[in-house]
Amino acid sequence: MLLRRKAASHRIRPVRPIEPGGLCYSVPMATVTIPREMAERRDLVAVPRREYEQFIEWQRRVKSAKTFAPTAAQKRALASARKRRRQGEYLTFHELRRALDSDR
């Protein structure tokens, strides 16, 4: 339950959100004007600066991390495996496990 301060008496009283889990603000909010072009695209997101900066830093770290670059032989092996899979030539997990257990 959220609380609201009464302007005249400065007492705090509970305020129920409009919908469950919703936010209810009891302080004046800033007004932001969104250009029509941005509003029509519906891709505008407002986040606090600190969270945005943390996201950008995370994105830099992820992009700088090494990614897997297969060799030509690995690409051929992967293409061959995909072809066999499409043709139904594969083992299920349980079949593989049984085969590996029987080798012991």
How does this model look, in words?
With about 100 residues, the protein is mainly alpha-helical. The chain is about 45% helix and about 10% strand. It has helices at about 35-40, 50-65, 70-85, 95-100; strands spanning about 1-5, 10-15. Strands 1-2 form a two-stranded antiparallel sheet.
Task: Write a compact overview of the structure shown.
This protein has 104 residues and is mainly α.
Describe the SSE topology.
Blueprint: E1 2-5, E2 12-15, H1 36-41, H2 49-64, H3 72-86, H4 93-102
Antiparallel strand pairs: 1-2
For the largest sheet, list the strands in their spatial order. 1-2
Report the helical percentage. 40-55%
Task: Give the helices and strands as they follow along the chain.
Answer: EEHHHH
Strand pairing plus helix content: what structural class? mainly alpha
Number of helices: 4
> What is the residue-mean pLDDT, rounded to a whole number?
77
Largest sheet: 2 strands, antiparallel
Q: Distance N terminus to C terminus?
A: 62 Å
Descriptors for this entry?
mainly alpha; 104 residues; two-stranded antiparallel sheet; 8% strand
